[in-house]
Amino acid sequence: QDVLVDNQKAAVLAPAGAHGEARFNERFLDLAGHYGFQPRACRPYRARTKGKDERMVGYIKQHFFVRYGSFTSWAHLNQQAEAWLGEEADQRLQTTVKEVVSVRFAREAPSLQPLPAVRYDTAYHELRQVAWDGYVDVRGNRYSVPSTLVGRTVQIHIGLEETLKIYQGETLVAEHRLRPVAQGWSSVPAHHAPLWQETLQVQRRPLTVYQEVATWN
Q1: What number is the average pLDDT over the span 72-96?
Q2: Could you tell me the pTM of the whole model?
Q3: Which of 75-89, 158-172, 187-201 has the lowest mean pLDDT?
Q4: How far is residue 217's CA from residue 211's CA, in Å, rounded to a whole number?
Q5: How would you write the chain as a 3-class SS string?
Q6: Which of 28, 76, 180, 203 is the most buried (most CB within 10 A)?
Q7: Cα–Cα dist 175/183, whole Å
């Protein structure tokens, strides 16, 4: 029901003062609302309120990443983590509570809330304006959108798997795989087909006498 966090900027914009509460990052509050917990921030410079949380970072570095030094995707990393948890981390005797981790978790599991049906969208969000040629600039490269959106503002979502989704309001209008700058722009021909039709359309006019003579000559 309550989640205690440190005062990192990803979660806390301003720590709690002597007579006020902490000011949380809006995305973190959105995350809390999605999963149904109440965020709480540690008191600054009071290490004892954080318990053993920070020790887990070192434990993962010194054990998990020593055993699994590489991975091909986030899904592969999660698969390796599940195996490591089952084989090593959850079977150890935790020195603070003097209890095997898997046994302690089984005892506390009934107190946990169920996860929602849909995972929280962790994608990076930002606004972009569509250029005159129907592209948006993202991380030094350019990605096409439908030509009807030229000059409009769209929202980009960058996921953990390096996927780029572009929205106009609530509507998904384009989807790309992020590419290194050296690979060049990412274009979908259907996005720009109407734009090319307008550009290449030629208005036919009747020939003048001079043009007719020049044609015959």
Answers
A1: 91
A2: 0.60
A3: 187-201
A4: 10
A5: CEEEECCCCCCEEECCCCCCCCEECHHHHHHHHHHCCEEEECCCCCHHHHCCCCHHHHHHHHHHHHHCCCCCCHHHHHHHHHHHHHHCHHHCEECCCCEEHHHHHHHHHHHCCCCCCCCCCCCEEEEEECCCCCEEEECCEEEECCHHHCCCEEEEEECCCCEEEEEECCEEEEEEECCCHHHCCECCHHHHHHHHHHHHCCCCCCCCHHHHHHHHC
A6: 28
A7: 17
- Taking the C-alpha atoms of residue 173 and residue 146, their distance in angstroms, rounded to an integer, is 7
Question: If we measure between CA atoms, which residue out of 15, 34, 35, 31 comes closest to residue 23?
Answer: 15
Rounded percentage of the chain residues whose pLDDT exceeds 90: 52
Q: What letters, b where the CB count within 10 A reaches 16 and e where it falls short, cover 122-156?
A: eeeeeebebeeebbbebeebbbbbbbebbeeebeb
Q: Which tokens is 140 given?
A: 């030094």
Angle value at C-alpha 144, between 179 and 128, nearest 5 degrees: 90
Tens digits of per-residue pLDDT, 117-156? 998 988 888 999 999 989 999 999 999 999 899 999 999 9
Q: Give the closest residue to 51 by CA, choosing from 94, 110, 115, 102.
A: 94
| C-alpha span between 39 and 10 (Å, rounded) | 13
